[in-house]
Amino acid sequence: MLVYKRIENIPKTNMGYSVAIGNFDGMHLGHQSVIEIARRTSDGSSLGVITFEPHPRQYFQQNQPTFRLMKSETRERFLNSFGVDALFEIPFDYSLANLSPEAFIETILLKKLHVKNIVVGPDFRFGKNRDGSVALLKRYQQQKKLNLHIASPFLMGGKTVSSSELRKKLTEGSIIEVTEMLSRYYEIEGEVEKGFQRGRDLGFPTINVALRNTIIPKHGVYAVLIKILSQDKERTFKGAASIGSRPTYGDYEPNIEVFIFDFNETLYGENVSISLVNFIRPELKFSTEKELIAQMKADCETIESLLK
After folding, report:
1. Model confidence pLDDT, tens digit, residues 117-135
2. Do 138 and 224 share a domain, yes or no?
3. Residue 179 within any structural domain of the chain
4. Does position 199 have pLDDT exceeding 70, yes or no?
């Protein structure tokens, strides 16, 4: 997959795509359906995705808690796995935020990218003050300047699959429903960092990954799968994970700690992906380490049985 992070650098030979446009935060079934429509209606054109970095909401609400479901690197990895030919990750800055809807269409989509076919969701908004809408895109279609397809909301059980609903379910610990909306496990990606090494002393050595720039799921214990992403070490293991602030020892920045079953290697500095398979129990505060160890043993037995 070709990745363009500055649209000025796009060779003319790589223009003329059928594109799906949106933020694609989470890459849920609704996002997947938009991309599939762009693929089906491409009429021989290459398949592209236009998205924005940072997320516009992140740009305008910089002091608000992190809400993103995935980092841009994770989104890129998933788009590549979906067979997308090119990702146009347009920098969302002051200039773009103040571009009129008409200028966005004429300058970005038509002049710089020469898109042939566009697919968006019914609520797609763009341009300064989010004044641009599907209605404006339809006018350009009527003028035969572009082909337009509006993707219907993706429904599951009568409810629309959306990023906001995914965020709600993650913070509730409703992992089975999250998996259904994604058609895969929810993944937390990051670099393994050195922690306090308390797990080693307790008999449960863990890998530690900081929860930065993405939403924090419900604090608690999870059954997980751990994939090492380095090409020369790419493998998948089973494990027990704890997401939280470690209340037994104080109050720390939330992170995810994973005890990997039948594993004794060092992974410091490696990028890993941790898939949440199921929520086991909420985070607890223990009076003694003995109580904590007993609960950890019970959690691991439960998770090993579940993952079989």
Report:
1. 999 998 899 999 999 999 9
2. no
3. no
4. no
Q: Which residues of 190-219 are buried (b: 16+ CB within 10 A; e: fewer)?
A: bebeebeebbeeeebbbbbbebeebbbbbb
Give the Cα separation of 84 and 289 in Å (integer): 50
What residue type is 13 in one-letter code?
A: T
pTM of the model: 0.89
Query: Same structural domain for residues 202 and 91?
Result: no
| Number of domains within the chain | 2
| Length of the chain in terms of residues written | 308
Q: Is residue 130 domain-shared with residue 272, that is, in the same domain?
A: no
Helix (H, G, I), strand (E, B) or coil at 250: coil
User: What is the distance between the terminal CA atoms of the chain, rounded to a whole angstrom?
Assistant: 35
Q: Counting runs of H as helices and runs of E as strands, what totals does the chain give?
A: 10, 14
Name the helix (H) or strand (E) containing 278.
strand 271-282
CA distances from 193 to 141, 262, 270, 298 (A): 51, 20, 9, 26
For 208, the 3-state DSSP assignment is strand
129 Ramachandran zone, left/alpha/beta (phi>0; psi -120 to 50): left
Domain that holds residue 63: 2-159
